[in-house]
Amino acid sequence: MSVVSSVPFGSSAVENRVRADFPGLVTRDGQPWHYLDTGATAQKPQAVIDATVRAMGADYATVHRGVYGRSAEMTLAFEQARRKVAQFLGGREDEVVFTRGATEAINLVAQTWGQASLKSGDRILLSLLEHHSNIVPWQLLAERTGVSIDVCPLDAEGRIDLDAAERMITPQHRLVSFAHVSNVLGSVLDVPRAVALARSVGAKMLLDGCQAVPRLPVDVAALDCDFYVFSSHKLYGPTGIGALWARREVLEAMPPWQGGGAMIDRVSFQGTTYAPPPARFEAGTPAIVEAIGLAAAIDYVGAIGMAAVRDHEIALVRTLRDELRRTNSVKVFGPDDGLGVVSFALDGVHPHDLGTILDEENVAIRAGHHCAQPLMEHLGVPATARASFGIYNDENDIAALLRGIERTKRIFG
Ligand SMILES: Cc1ncc(COP(=O)(O)O)c(C=O)c1O
Questions:
Q1: Is the pLDDT of residue 1 over 70?
Q2: Which among 133, 327, 328, 395 would be 20 to 30 A from 230, CA to CA?
Q3: Could you give the CA distance from residue 173 to residue 123 in angstroms, rounded to a whole number?
Q4: Residue 370 alpha carbon to ligand 1 centre in Å
Q5: Gap between the Cα atoms of 242 and 248, Å rounded
C-alpha cells in the first residue's frame, strides 16, 4: 500500500532526527514502535529525560525556602520554568499557576472562582464534545451551588456549533467552557467567535487547551480568553504537572483553594492572610522536578517551532483521513480540517479488537470512549478507534496502521 509522502517537517532527515530523540519509540525487542496515542500522552525526548534526571540528582533541593546555594539555584530554575510556560502561552509569569494537570486546573477554577462567583440561577455553557475533565467539575459545582449547565450541540461535521451557541447564550450565562481542540474529533474551536459570544453576555471564557498546546501556537493574549489550561505530559513533558493561566485581575479576585505551606502571607490562630497569586493557589512543596522537565519540553518544541508542528500534524491527519476513506468499511469521524487526532470505526469490528491486533503489528492506538461519553452517545457508538499524532510520527506510522487495518479485515472476514 502506498501512502502519499506529503508530510512536511523540513526533510525526512529532520523527521529521523526527531524520532531518534525519543527512546520510547522502539519496542522491547528493538523494532520501530508506531506510537499513535500522543493524544493520551506524548513520548519524552531525551532532553526532557536528562533535565529531569539532573533536577532529581545533582541539582536537587527544595524551592522558595532554603538559605543554602543549591536551594536558591533550584528556586531560580523553578521560577524560570514558570516564565517559560508564560512565554510559551503568551501570558505573564504571575498569571501562571502550576497544577497537577488540566484536570486539576479546571477543578481549581470551579472550586474557587466558580464557588465564589456563581449562584443558583446562573448558567454555564459547555459543549457535547467535552472531555469529562471539562464536564464533571462543573457538575460538582452545580450540585453545590444550584447553577445550571447547558450543552451546546455540534455541527454536522463535529465542530462546536457556534450558531447554536449564539441562540442559546443568555445574560444568565456566567461561563463558557470549551475545548480548544477536541481529543476525539480533532475539531478546532473558532476561538475569536466563541470569546465574542461569551463577552456579549458578560460571561467568562475558559479554554481547555490540552490537545491544542502540543499542536499549534497558542497566544492567550491574542485569544483574549479568561482561563486557559493544559497538561505537560501531552506536550512531551513529565506527568504530574500542568498549568492554569488566568488574567491577573481574575486570579486576584479568586479565594484560596487548598491550604498549607507556600500559599500564605502570615499564619496565626487569630487569622491567616494569603499570598498573592500564583503562590496563593500552590499549597505545599510543588512539583519541582516536573516543572524543570516541562521547561525542557518547551525548549524542545520551541526549537522545532509550533507553526511547523501544526503544519506537520495537519498533513498527517489529511493523509490518514484520505487513506481511511479509500479503505472499504471504515467510517471516519470529525471534520477534515481536524488537528492531530483521527477517530474511526471499522465495520463489524470492536475498536478494542482492532487495537489488540494492531498491537501485534507494533502499532499503538487508543480504543475506547476517550473520556467523552456524551460525545460517544451522540456519535451512536460505545467507542471509537483513535489515532493521534505527535512530532515524531511520519507516513511510515500511517502505512503500518493501514497494514494492520487490512490484516484485521482479513481476520474478521
Ligand atoms: C481535551 C482534554 N481535556 C482534558 C484532559 C485531561 O488531561 P489530564 O488527564 O492530563 O488532566 C484531556 C486528556 O486526555 C484532554 O484530551
A1: no
A2: 395
A3: 4
A4: 9
A5: 18
